[in-house]
Amino acid sequence: MSLSHSGLPSAEIERVFAVLRFVSQQQEASSSSLSSLSLPAAGGSEGDTLNAGTVAAVAKGKAGKKVSDPLIIPEDVQNKLEAFRMAVTNIPVQMEAVQSARAALRTALRDAYPNKLEDVDQLCGCNVFLKATPKGTPHFMLRDVYALQAMHEVVPGLYVGSYHPASERELLHRHKVTHVLCCIDVMPRFPSEFTYMKISAQDMPGYNIAKFFPQTFEFIEDALIKQHSAVLVHCGAGISRAPTIAAAYLIKKLRMTAVAAIELIQSRRHVASPNLGFRQQLRAYQEELGIYPEGAEGARPRAGMPLRINNKG
């Protein structure tokens, strides 16, 4: 099994998100079945907008979209998924522990979803998330100048890039992007087709980018888990601001250290390099969440924090 530059098994990290999406899809299917048997409720919902806080602007396409219910994970699946998550994000990674945790997760999923055994077995297959470079990819497209203008998938559905892919409608649709998180002060390019969040961040070490972490976490979470789609986080060049926002999401979601989150992003997007001030803010955010490297002073509790979708902590 290949490891990312951070020493993390990137394929297994992708599996964590795939399991969350799978559970969310089952919940959505169950809710749809139940709602078809009941009368529609009168009136509208007041929770149909994002709490943008200090975010400069939120432009929403696809008006009237229903806000997803919080994800409810069966308790045994929750516990096994959390154990698996810790196994794949604790450095140094013990592959025997990863394999054991994955097997336990598979059993829990089979017990919870007996009508989806084939899907569960495929989801927990050993090599299902391993990838290879697509054949026929022109060599010139692998050079840094083109990598700078591209967007790169860090974990399933989470893309980081520059402004260029954000202006390419067909590219976004092809990758099933529904949400665009813009970290620079530009107007949404296709406001009627995508859900946007805009934060006007400055790429300076002294700039307080951490103030956006709570809102951007919820925005990315809505796309990846609740909407089963994809999100592009971009800035001007995709080097500092966008990778910082993506790293903050990974730190909270996967209980990773700031160093591990940055290195995971860099393993997918080599030009990513948050400035020193942003790195310090990510490290402070990590410590605020009670996340520490294994063996460090005040190390995080072994149980970690559950992977709850409506996590506010």
Automatic annotation (TrEMBL):
One of its GO terms (biological process) is signal transduction. Residues 210-269 form the Tyrosine specific protein phosphatases domain. This is Putative dual specificity protein phosphatase. GO terms for molecular function: protein serine/threonine phosphatase activity; protein tyrosine phosphatase activity. CDD domains: DSP. Keywords: Hydrolase, Protein phosphatase. Belongs to the protein-tyrosine phosphatase family. Non-receptor class dual specificity subfamily. InterPro entries: Dual-sp_phosphatase_cat-dom, Prot-tyrosine_phosphatase-like, Tyr_Pase_dom, TYR_PHOSPHATASE_DUAL_dom. It catalyses: O-phospho-L-seryl-[protein] + H2O = L-seryl-[protein] + phosphate; O-phospho-L-threonyl-[protein] + H2O = L-threonyl-[protein] + phosphate. Residues 150-291 form the Tyrosine-protein phosphatase domain. One of its GO terms (cellular component) is cytosol. SUPFAM superfamilies: (Phosphotyrosine protein) phosphatases II. It comes from Trypanosoma cruzi. SMART domains: DSPc.
